[in-house]
Amino acid sequence: MISAYTNARLIDPASGLDTKGTLIVNNGKIADFGPDVTVPDDATVTDCKGRVLCPGFIDMRAHSVDADAALAGGITTVILQPDQTTLIDSDPVVERIRRRAEDTHTVNVYPMGAATRGMEGMELAEIGQMKASGAVAFTDCRKPVSSSQVMRRLMEYASYFGAVIVQFPQDVGLANGGIAHEGEIATRLGFAGIPAMAEVIQIERDARLSEMTGTPIHFALISSREGVEAVRAAKERGVKVTCSTAPHYLHLNDNAMEGYRTFAKVSPPLRSEEDRLALIAGIADGTIDTVVSDHDPKSEDVKRLPFGQAAAGIVGFETLLALALGPVHAGKVDLITMLKAMTATPAALLGVPGGKLEAGAPADLVIFDPDKPWRIDREAFRASAKNTPFDTLPVQGQVWQTIVGGKALYSGE
Amino acid sequence: MSTQQTDTQSYPRAEVSPPSGHLFPHKHLLGIWNLDPTAIKHVLDVADAYVEQNRQPKKSSPKCAGLTQINLFFENSTRTLMSFEIAGKRLGMEVTSMATGSSSIKKGETLLDTAATLNAMHPDVLVMRHADSGAVKLLSEKMDCAVINAGDGRAEHPTQALLDALTIRRRKGKLHGQTIVISGDVAHSRVARSNIYLLNAMGARVRLVAPPTLLPKDVDRLGVEVSHRMDEGLKGADVVMMLRLQQERMQGAFLPSLREYYRFWGLTRDTLKYAKEDVLVMHPGPMNRGVEIASDVADDLDRSAIEEQVEMGVAVRMACLDILTRNLRGEDAV
């Protein structure tokens, strides 16, 4: 079966291509694309009406598959975190998740495995076994591997398998008991704080361990100006570090906690305005490599509690594009850079298919209108929970179609 | 947008009903942060009258007869709980108290379930203390009645700040222009926070004196002076408010020992010499004698207002109960 997407603004962030044209899909794969492509007679034609057509988003950090929500967000590949009901710390669990995703023919799912057994930071998890079963990276999720010795061994061992290690950069000692960014707002609201230095100390230690072992390291969810600077300095030294952040850190600062709003409770915490601006600048200059949703559905039962007891987390799939486009519309980050952080870069980092417009590549695509204004409405979410601090926020940029393996699995207005 | 600019959103203003004519236009008393000087002054004025009533042989009045007050304390307290009980009874309220240690609630129902249960009993005032900052505000959102915060986490303890202010106003004649030192464990203290907001609102000059480990980050941005030394910090003080030091602060490595704390930050006759001659010494209680305050300072009848604070506590709480139940008694605009 042949489909043609005509009148599209084709963007391939990997190559920098940005042109009006047509893309042909044949048998679930990209057959051809460009400004002068002729549409075969037997093709089913979709007129994109000038909308952007680019590789589907590869969301490098999600705590739930939530396929319907992912598709509505233009996400074609979900990288599942190991903190599932059954912890992903052995190869049978990895296999089960891979098989379930393949059987349901929906969004692509690749799990990350736990880096240490039980994510307890003491013994190495079976990285080789899990990698052979399809785990794409290894992380203890929101628990940093705090022992330097374990981290060193982990990196040395992982290098043999070429396994990617993802660290949550937060020094456990400094963060101890904290629930919010340490600063004026936390002081006034009466919260124990997590200083930005907790992030820096972990980044700097692990960057040194990376130098020592030669193993690359990826830091998930940078939240502070100092964190961005630490990563930038490590990169300048030639250390193989990469890092990500999430759209809520680009849109909110710790003021969002005012009134004890638990929807603004995330880990790492929302930080100051200065930090927010530094993160946007970090994406613009390439210090921050990937933008992830950190999609984390949490029921009202665990959110409608006093701030200190409430669970951290935000549902991010369906707001990923619109929020990521915020700094683009504000002129702070260019469109291709932002899209690259959600497509080609995560694909290359993890070695997963997709992320590029390339003849022969799987037709995992998203078509979106970058300018369309709409208002975020949590009631309309397809996600399994509706914990978002962005309800009613006016945004620009909406997904029109999400195509996985050549099939349009989501169509919006 | 700087971090300072959304001040008005904290403790979103309680419903104003009716919107005009009220000196205290709030449904609840959740904190001092959102009170303006007029509202604070009004509470103090009403409380002043109750001080006189409480000194009469017949202390009770049937003003709030028929109304129900529930005291719900998720954190241990004796004096604040008793103060609220006596305040309610002197106004003729039906008072029920439920005190439960902070550990037992974790096993049981959630706070909002508790709120629904209590709400179904139709109380007219709910007084609540909880170990989590913001917990009282959360509960107030689900209650139909007036809610008074009797202390939430490290966030606020508004009636303590009001009773402290009443004590100072009666002793010194005014709050405006007074130099008031708050000394001790500011980091973990809701009393300190409420007092900072209230004293700032009333035009006093607030200075914090504490070891660096017991001061929260960016506290100077709340509009206070900060010092780490008692001699420097107490200079020119009209009032010294000591905070209670929790004995377990050694565990988090905040301090090495109580002995050392007393030597450098204890309030003694010697350190008090740096303050004004007629300095007023206050403490929210219960005191750790020989830790944050020397016995002879605490017991100095000329300077210490510590017992008076307890007396003012009942009057202030009566004033709060009175003001928040006015609409129920058909007394609207004052």
UniProtKB/TrEMBL annotation, chain A:
<feature type="domain" description="Amidohydrolase 3">
    <location>
        <begin position="332"/>
        <end position="410"/>
    </location>
</feature>
<protein>
    <submittedName>
        <fullName>Dihydroorotase</fullName>
    </submittedName>
</protein>
<dbReference type="InterPro" id="IPR024403">
    <property type="entry name" value="DHOase_cat"/>
</dbReference>
<dbReference type="GO" id="GO:0046872">
    <property type="term" value="F:metal ion binding"/>
</dbReference>
<dbReference type="InterPro" id="IPR004722">
    <property type="entry name" value="DHOase"/>
</dbReference>
<dbReference type="GO" id="GO:0006145">
    <property type="term" value="P:purine nucleobase catabolic process"/>
</dbReference>
<dbReference type="GO" id="GO:0004151">
    <property type="term" value="F:dihydroorotase activity"/>
</dbReference>
<dbReference type="Pfam" id="PF12890">
    <property type="entry name" value="DHOase"/>
</dbReference>
<feature type="domain" description="Dihydroorotase catalytic">
    <location>
        <begin position="67"/>
        <end position="226"/>
    </location>
</feature>
<dbReference type="Pfam" id="PF07969">
    <property type="entry name" value="Amidohydro_3"/>
</dbReference>
<keyword id="KW-0862">Zinc</keyword>
<dbReference type="InterPro" id="IPR011059">
    <property type="entry name" value="Metal-dep_hydrolase_composite"/>
</dbReference>
<keyword id="KW-0665">Pyrimidine biosynthesis</keyword>
<dbReference type="InterPro" id="IPR032466">
    <property type="entry name" value="Metal_Hydrolase"/>
</dbReference>
<dbReference type="InterPro" id="IPR050138">
    <property type="entry name" value="DHOase/Allantoinase_Hydrolase"/>
</dbReference>
<dbReference type="GO" id="GO:0006221">
    <property type="term" value="P:pyrimidine nucleotide biosynthetic process"/>
</dbReference>
<dbReference type="InterPro" id="IPR013108">
    <property type="entry name" value="Amidohydro_3"/>
</dbReference>
<dbReference type="GO" id="GO:0004038">
    <property type="term" value="F:allantoinase activity"/>
</dbReference>
<dbReference type="GO" id="GO:0005737">
    <property type="term" value="C:cytoplasm"/>
</dbReference>
From TrEMBL, chain B:
<feature type="domain" description="Aspartate/ornithine carbamoyltransferase carbamoyl-P binding">
    <location>
        <begin position="27"/>
        <end position="169"/>
    </location>
</feature>
<dbReference type="GO" id="GO:0005829">
    <property type="term" value="C:cytosol"/>
</dbReference>
<comment type="function">
    <text>Reversibly catalyzes the transfer of the carbamoyl group from carbamoyl phosphate (CP) to the N(epsilon) atom of ornithine (ORN) to produce L-citrulline.</text>
</comment>
<dbReference type="GO" id="GO:0016597">
    <property type="term" value="F:amino acid binding"/>
</dbReference>
<dbReference type="InterPro" id="IPR002082">
    <property type="entry name" value="Asp_carbamoyltransf"/>
</dbReference>
<feature type="binding site">
    <location>
        <position position="160"/>
    </location>
    <ligand>
        <name>carbamoyl phosphate</name>
    </ligand>
</feature>
<keyword id="KW-0665">Pyrimidine biosynthesis</keyword>
<feature type="binding site">
    <location>
        <position position="244"/>
    </location>
    <ligand>
        <name>L-aspartate</name>
    </ligand>
</feature>
<dbReference type="GO" id="GO:0004070">
    <property type="term" value="F:aspartate carbamoyltransferase activity"/>
</dbReference>
<dbReference type="InterPro" id="IPR006132">
    <property type="entry name" value="Asp/Orn_carbamoyltranf_P-bd"/>
</dbReference>
<keyword id="KW-0808">Transferase</keyword>
<feature type="region of interest" description="Disordered">
    <location>
        <begin position="1"/>
        <end position="20"/>
    </location>
</feature>
<dbReference type="GO" id="GO:0006207">
    <property type="term" value="P:'de novo' pyrimidine nucleobase biosynthetic process"/>
</dbReference>
<feature type="binding site">
    <location>
        <position position="157"/>
    </location>
    <ligand>
        <name>carbamoyl phosphate</name>
    </ligand>
</feature>
<feature type="binding site">
    <location>
        <position position="285"/>
    </location>
    <ligand>
        <name>carbamoyl phosphate</name>
    </ligand>
</feature>
<dbReference type="Pfam" id="PF00185">
    <property type="entry name" value="OTCace"/>
</dbReference>
<feature type="binding site">
    <location>
        <position position="190"/>
    </location>
    <ligand>
        <name>L-aspartate</name>
    </ligand>
</feature>
<comment type="pathway">
    <text>Pyrimidine metabolism; UMP biosynthesis via de novo pathway; (S)-dihydroorotate from bicarbonate: step 2/3.</text>
</comment>
<feature type="compositionally biased region" description="Polar residues">
    <location>
        <begin position="1"/>
        <end position="11"/>
    </location>
</feature>
<protein>
    <recommendedName>
        <fullName>Aspartate carbamoyltransferase</fullName>
        <ecNumber>2.1.3.2</ecNumber>
    </recommendedName>
</protein>
<comment type="function">
    <text>Catalyzes the condensation of carbamoyl phosphate and aspartate to form carbamoyl aspartate and inorganic phosphate, the committed step in the de novo pyrimidine nucleotide biosynthesis pathway.</text>
</comment>
<feature type="binding site">
    <location>
        <position position="286"/>
    </location>
    <ligand>
        <name>carbamoyl phosphate</name>
    </ligand>
</feature>
